[in-house]
Amino acid sequence: MHWFLGRNSGARNQIIALCNNYLAQAKLDSALAEVDKAITRDPTFPCNSSYNARVLMSKGYPAKARLEFMKSLEERRINVLYENYLGLFALDLLEGKLEKAKAELGQAIDKMSKLGAKMQEAEFHIRLAYGYLRLGQPEKAPEECEGARKLALEMESDDDQRKALYMKGLSYLRKGSMDEAQETAEELKQMIQSGINKK
In b/e form, how buried is each residue of 78-108, taking b as 16+ CB within 10 angstroms? Predict the structure, then answer.
């Protein structure tokens, strides 16, 4: 949520900063108090539900947290959607709801594609690949990694390409495709060395 801090100023900014600080210290009641202040100050601010959900998740109320995350899924603001889908993914993993995580990430990818949010779409492809590994379906993960890499190439993002290659190599390793895993590892190695040489 650091994107928010750079785009807003004043009292609300201070409240959210305090909430982050309390969450980092596991002072959950204090964090929740700051969220309540933010909601009182501006009930319509779309990030209120994300912060409230994160505090509730930390306090051990997953059902309530899920409802808060879902409140903003009709938003068209890319970063609001991104944070809420990340929150739902984290909840699904914590609760062992892997099929649900896969379905929700599929929705997230579709929405980001329609909004032209390539960076977030690439991130969700990588997380979906990870979800397939958790589901014991490594054969499905490389396709997601390639989807992420294609977007990374369009954005000219070396960092996202490296993430996609790493997850692709891990997918082949879990699948037992050692030749493909080695080939991907070599490609990743060359890319890292090329990046170092650029500097």
Answer: bbbbbbbbbbbbbbbbeeebbebbbebbeeb
Helices 28-41 & 48-58, crossing angle to 10 degrees?
160
d(CA 93, CA 180): 28
Q: Which residue has the tokens 């785009």?
A: 7
pLDDT, tens digit (0-9, with 9 covering 90-100), for 17-29: 777 777 777 777 8
- Residue position matching structure tokens 């062992």: 96
User: What span, in angstroms and rounded, lies between the C-alpha atoms of 61 and 54?
Assistant: 10
Q: Which fold has domain 12-72?
A: 1.25.40
In angstroms, the Cα distances linking 97 to 62, 92, 106 are 12, 5, 14
**Digit-coded pLDDT (tens) for 141-187:** 999 999 999 999 999 999 999 999 999 999 999 999 999 999 999 99
Q: Quote the CA–CA distance of 131 and 125 in Å, as a whole number.
A: 10
Inform me whether the pLDDT recorded for 68 exceeds 50. Answer: yes
